[in-house]
Design brief:
This protein is an alpha+beta fold and about 375 residues long. It has helices at about 1-20, 30-60, 95-110, 115-120, 175-185, 185-190, 220-230, 250, 260-270, 290-295, 320-335, and strands at about 80, 85-90, 125-130, 140-145, 155-160, 195-205, 205-210, 275-280, 280-290, 300-305, 310. The strands form 3 sheets. Strands 7-6-5-9-10 form a 5-stranded antiparallel β-sheet. A 4-stranded antiparallel β-sheet has the order 1-2-4-3, with helices on one face. About 30% of the residues are buried.
Length: about 375
């Protein structure tokens, strides 16, 4: 603050001298009272400017349009916000999960044991900040993270929770029981991963297909396979009478910079790393359909998110995460080797129980 004030004082002093000289009165240094008044004026101006900047910043915050899973803001609920300038504000959970996630992010930038090519899979961390909570409860601490899709046009996104086991050993008995009950009803146990949400861009006219979370209840292995195929299809929609064409499989999943290559890079690290065990952590798959239509690129990207349950690896390989990652890699590899075998026979007669029924469609 003093440096800012001194700089402003020096600039103002120069301007005053020029003005005085121009009217025939030479005064290199205005009287001390001038500086006292000017210093207070600068402080008032900076306070005012700070208040305006804070007001404008708060006015920019909004509920993310592209969030596909997790706790979501709106309707009086606490959830993340974005500022439209490339930053994502995630409410810091009030128990040890919040402390744990903040500590993990803080350690990433200084941990020299994490290779640079692996760091790119994690969102950039900008510290924490007190913000007005989305539920109207007042000031609340938020993690300030990179908004992973702020620079993308109509991104298609899939959130996949990795691991057959979603709780750390030190979790409470009640929490473990809750996770066990939930995981047994999903593909977490059977496949080692769980699709928790997605949005798939269709066209300017049709917009996004973004199912409600209830859509994913009761997903089977064939359901997962079908959705992974639809994710890279030009005709992706909630209409499951239309077979997915897997038109973008080679450019999104395949290639040296595609999703499969990135997942294999992660797999190679998890085969060796013993620093952390990642429980209830998600892999995000991201690409842009407009780019894929051009045929030269798709902007395919893999990111890791949600680190509230990361624990010390204690020198042991994280077989839980590695196993789930290998399972996901197998599914995506199969799509690349057999793109024409789009499984559409997974239709249940009772539409009430059918996750693919259009009645369970877009999240509104």
């Amino acid at each position: 603050m003093d440096q800012v004030i001194n700089t402003a004082r020096s600039t103002q002093s120069c301007s005053t001298s020029v003005l005085c000289e121009s009217i025939g009165v030479y005064a290199r240094d205005p009287p001390p009272i001038y500086y006292a008044f000017n210093r207070e004026g600068i402080r008032s101006f900076l306070d005012f400017a700070g208040s305006v900047a804070n007001y404008l910043f708060l006015a920019m915050l909004k509920i993310p349009d592209n969030q596909v899973a997790g706790h979501q803001a709106g309707n009086g609920k606490l959830g993340p916000l974005v500022d439209g300038l490339g930053r994502f504000y995630k409410p810091l959970q009030s128990d040890e999960r919040g402390t744990n996630e903040e500590a993990f992010y803080s350690s990433l930038s200084s941990n020299t044991r994490i290779p640079g090519h692996i760091c790119r899979f994690f969102p950039v961390f900008h510290g924490t900040q007190l913000l007005e909570a989305s539920d109207g409860s007042g000031l609340f601490p938020h993690l300030v993270l990179q908004d992973l899709v702020s620079s993308r046009l109509n991104p298609s996104i899939m959130d996949i929770k990795i691991g057959a086991r979603t709780w750390p050993a030190q979790a409470s008995e009640d929490y473990i029981a809750k996770c066990l009950e939930r995981d047994r009803e999903t593909t977490s146990v059977s496949l080692g991963f769980l699709i928790t949400g997605f949005q798939m861009y269709g066209s300017k006219e049709s917009g996004f297909w973004k199912p409600h979370k209830k859509f994913f209840h009761g997903f089977s292995t064939d359901d997962v396979r079908l959705v992974l195929r639809k994710f890279v299809s030009s005709n992706a929609s909630g209409d499951f009478d239309v077979d997915p064409d897997c038109a973008f499989a080679s450019i999104v999943y395949g290639g040296s910079n595609g999703i499969l290559a990135q997942l294999l890079d992660l797999k190679a690290w998890f085969e060796d790393q013993t620093l952390f065990h990642f429980y209830s952590c998600s892999v995000l798959l991201i690409y842009e359909k407009e780019l894929a239509l051009d045929g030269s690129s798709s902007g395919a990207e893999v990111k890791l998110v949600d680190f509230a349950h990361v624990v010390d690896g204690k020198g042991v390989i994280d077989h839980n995460f590695l196993g789930g990652l290998c399972s996901l890699i197998k599914f995506i590899s199969e799509i690349l080797t057999t793109p024409d075998k789009c499984q559409t026979e997974v239709r249940i007669q009772d539409s009430e129980n059918n996750p693919f029924s259009s009645g369970n469609g877009a999240d509104g």
